[in-house]
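Box 3.1 A note on notation
Throughout this textbook, protein chains are presented in two layers. The first layer is the amino acid sequence; the second is a token string describing backbone geometry. Keep the layers aligned when reading.
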Amino acid sequence: MDRTVQLTARPTERDIAYDPPPAADTLQLRAARVLEANWTGSSTVPSRGLYPHQWSWDSAFIAIGLRHRSPLRAQTELETLLAAQWGDGRVPHIVFNPSVPLDAYFPSPDFWRSTTAGRAAGAPRTVQTSGIVQPPVHALAAWLVHCADPWLSRTRGFLARVYPRLAAWHRYLLHRRDLGGGGLVSVVHPWEQGMDNSPCWDLPLSRISPAPARSFRRADLDHGAAEDRPTDLDYGRYVRLAADYRDRGYADGPGDFAVEDPAFNALLVASEHALARIAHELGAPGTARHARAERLTHALVERLWDPAEGMFFCRDVRTGEPIRERGVAGLVPLLLPTLPRDLVTALVGTLTGPHFGLGTTTRLVPSYDLLGEAFDPHRYWRGPAWFNTAWLVERGLRVHDEREPADALADALIATAGTSDFAEYVDPYTGEACGATGFSWTAALALDLLHTRSHNVRPAADRPAVRGGDGG
């Protein structure tokens, strides 16, 4: 046989051997590309256009997903955020990137004036931040990041460095924010709870005189439809509240807006359990932290649970009355590992019943009551489904061995993240993308669920991070 013919007859095989075809464009790779595109070198922005700085609870959720791709980046994410912590222990809800133009986002650093207005509260001098906070997911995230690569974590002294900052953060919340005197933490601005535009805030916000429209420019409307965003009236009230807090030097105390929120406090419980695990890893007992988490759980049930409605409600500290609006925040306490079984059963019934419709009429958990007068499937936190709250509810279902609804919710979250191009939030009925696409926590939490589902393991949030034991 002619050897020339032999050698020239198989170019395709030679090409494949030396230049293999690219791997399939999997959901994991797409999610990883979102996080890579939003990485700044030391942290991850939620969205390059709409949110060009570092956000507090975003970074915690981002780290939870990043740990499966790069535990080092996940550690760096949390370390960068905690480096901007204030002297009084608060972790600010925004850490500003000085290279981003001031008009790219409002409220900008020149509104918050952290280095001057926050001086008495110990605001850092070398970085500009906001003066309010966001939900305390950080200790839970730190523990999960450690578990992803314990050797790297121990080698870098990751937990030893973040533990004192996390402990100071919790101390600030527990000592400075118990504005109702019942043991629960209060938020002093809707932005602190993270679900900014929820109807749960309408009643306490109605007491606030809005800032004049001419006193601020809404950069968010450059990136989203006005009908999907907060109204100008609500935004004016947000600005007024933030400006008044700033003008008091960010001093905490009873004000016109103070609300005990079930999700914020449930996340503090989960993170107290996680801090106990971190303490044990560092050679200290975690018993006191578990006990504190149990006291918080008891206070949450005593003050915010409504047995007739089968869910938790916010409480207006100023009036002492519950705010009877059904928001997704009232379902997040499913995360509590020692929640009584009858409460778990009631919460699952509410989640799958007509007000939230999970598994029957909705794909993901809507942010607000489907039957509520204020429900809007597209307007920011007044009905759309968000991926971080879906992830929290899914974790809570697993904590209590509600595997069937948890599996269905995980599958829906993964599928919707992909079909929506990792949207900021979606229509709860159709999964239609709303807000920004290429959103970091959507990509990160999809990665986390893809990892746990593909490895067929119980998520770490079901095990040491939120359950009671001190073991390693």
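The first strand starts at residue 54 and ends at 55. Residues 399 and 462 are 5 Å apart (CA to CA).
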